[in-house]
# Entry
Amino acid sequence: MIGWISVLALAAGADLPPPPTDPRLEAFKAACVPHRQDMAKATEALAADGWEQVADDDHPRLAAAMARARAEVDDPELEMTLDFSVWGRTRDGLRLHLVLNRVHAMIGDTEDSDGDGVIQSWERALSWDTLGCGLWDFEATGPIDNAVMNAWVGAGPVQFIDAPGQISGGTWNVHHMMPGTGEVHMGFVHEGGGMGIAPGFAGLSITMSSALPEEPAEAE
# Structure
């Protein structure tokens, strides 16, 4: 009896349609997920998969997005460094761009706030290190279907926006499947709808940011 139940279950499963997919999401998963906490390995994997490093002006919309990103870092009041690595690839007629960015920032100040002459752990400035990975399709004419994202994550978006003629997209929690990574964002900016993001920007993006493992403390 149990054997027949197993056979019937397998037969029912065979009739299920494959989960929906999209070449942009598949490219993002291959490029950004495996080495999401190691920039050196991520860079090696991109080169091995046919991605090539490109200049910001490889596409005018890429240039607009990168100009905005680099301007945000150029703030003398921020104790932060941000390294960019920009890539491009054409496969099956689809031109995509990918940006890696490593952020190092110090949060707060190290100070002896209680005046006991000893710097306690809670009195030290915190080091914040992340690796961001974003895929861009600047010629996209619409967002990725939510069903595609839902099938990958196994749940719907926790946030969603749909402003007709401007921007649409959502945020998916992925920590359960990618420890160290909290969320994946998918968004589409319509032609002329990106003035609040970057003048001249439009297209589809899939992005995430992952916390980098702490480096071992040096022995004093």
